[in-house]
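With this grant's support, the team has encoded backbone shapes as discrete tokens. A representative record is reproduced below.
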Amino acid sequence: MAIWKSGTTLDEVNQMGANTLVHHLGITVVEIGDDFLKASMPVDHRTHQPMGILHGGASVALAETVGSIAASRCVPPDHYCVGLEINANHLRAVREGLITAVARPIHLGRSTQVWDIRINDEQDQPVCISRLTMAVLKGPASGR
């Protein structure tokens, strides 16, 4: 059974990132399953740190993006979600290519959500593991 409560087409979620950090970093939602959302991000000059490897902050931006999009689609249309806390364990350096993040819910409550986000490289090796806690709020939210 799908967890989504509002529209979740790839075009719809990718349009949300226009003219934002999501667009600047090249993050694209590539798959929506019944209980997960998957996005990719290139590892290139936009996402490198000075040593020529993936910047940890770019990994966290990808994790928060995929988790936030997923969270916002799991609440009724008169609700929205904002981030409360995110943590990340960086496991492997990446110099180039494409990384992929998969967000799956751990907890979908009325006032909070907790998401597990796993980021892997093109060889399906773990790059970063993140946990995102979201607040669920009632009211209008722009960008939905």
